[in-house]
Amino acid sequence: MKKIGVLTSGGDSQGMNSAIRSIVRTGIAHGYEMIGIKRGFNGLMEKDFMALETKDVADILYRGGTFLQSARSKEFRKEEGQVKAANNLREAGIEYLVVIGGDGSYRGAAKLNERDIKTYGLPGTIDNDIPLTDYTIGFDTTLNVVTEAIGNLRDTMSSHDRVSVIEVMGRDRGDIALHAGIASGVDAILIPEIPGDIHKISEKLKDGFERGKTHSIVIVAEGVDKAEKIAHLIKEQSGLDTRATVLGHIQRGGTPSAFDRVFTSRMGHKVIKLMEEGIHGVALGMEKNEITYHSFEEIFQAKNVVKANLYEIFEDLV
Ligand code: F6P
């Protein structure tokens, strides 16, 4: 029986468990033997392998995190680490490997594909920063978590005539801030892709309060600056009572949204189909509601498109 290995790598994201479940159950249904690899590429180098049966992935569909656990491996970035990992896979008879993770994990997966391990990537990151897919795993759930948190902050801010500056994740990308900002009807969005002007924002917030507003919300992507610093500048320039909140790792938790569960179930199914079609060295994603795939190289070469259009929409809404 042919063996398929699956691992989760990099920062975890809600929906990784659902992806593992889909890969394992579809793989078994199509006659493959399934192997879970613990703690990402670290587990690959330490041969931390476990056989997975249908029952082993029961009750994980709706759980955040990843039951295989995840890590960022320094050793695997070096060539010796990659040779060791490929040898361990061959020794265990694992012919196919599915890596669920972000850009760094894809680079590792591509290296193994060059070493004749048939490798596949699934976009597991809340940041939505992988090109050639409209969404990444966990992004939708994170937006819901952030939107709910902003709602809570709005309640207390409006009781005290305050401005709330909220810092969200996204590494060097602003997708979480932009989407959650629009979903929450915030007053200003600061993202790395589009320079913002704190002076203009402060003036606008001041005008709002003069017109009778009781609260204002500013969302800032972590790639721009610290919320504390932005809040200090706004307070200084506007004179408004301004507080900073860093949402932090709360954004990476919680039960995956229905969208993330269905999205990952579709990709898990498709990856097994690709194995049967003899296609490998590719990463999957969703474009225009279709599950699509591209070679790792294509993804590395592709430009990460700035969601400028969405920003334009936001500017007309505030
Ligand atoms: O890439 C996912 C992410 O959550 C980023 O948004 C964030 O910058 C980073 O990981 C945090 O990493 P860690 O969990 O190692 O602190």
UniProtKB/TrEMBL annotation:
Activity regulation field: Allosterically activated by ADP and other diphosphonucleosides, and allosterically inhibited by phosphoenolpyruvate.
Gene3D superfamilies in the record: 3.40.50.450, Phosphofructokinase domain
Phosphofructokinase domain: residues covered: 3-274
PROSITE patterns assigned: PHOSPHOFRUCTOKINASE
Residues binding substrate, per UniProt: T125, I126, D127, R162, M169, G170, R171, E222, R243, H249, I250, Q251, R252
Cofactor(s) this protein requires: Mg(2+)
The UniProt record lists the keyword Cytoplasm: yes
Catalysis: reaction(s): beta-D-fructose 6-phosphate + ATP = beta-D-fructose 1,6-bisphosphate + ADP + H(+)
GO CC annotations, alphabetized: 6-phosphofructokinase complex
Subcellular location: Cytoplasm
Active site positions, chain numbering: D127
Pathway terms, separated by semicolons: Carbohydrate degradation; glycolysis; D-glyceraldehyde 3-phosphate and glycerone phosphate from D-glucose: step 3/4
Gene Ontology BP annotations: canonical glycolysis; fructose 1,6-bisphosphate metabolic process; fructose 6-phosphate metabolic process
Enzyme class: transferase
Signal peptide positions (record): none
Molecular function (Gene Ontology), one example: metal ion binding
Complexes and interactors: Homotetramer.
PANTHER family: ATP-DEPENDENT 6-PHOSPHOFRUCTOKINASE (PTHR13697:SF4), PHOSPHOFRUCTOKINASE (PTHR13697)
Similarity section: Belongs to the phosphofructokinase type A (PFKA) family. ATP-dependent PFK group I subfamily. Prokaryotic clade 'B1' sub-subfamily.
Protein name, entry field: ATP-dependent 6-phosphofructokinase
Source species of the chain: Salipaludibacillus agaradhaerens
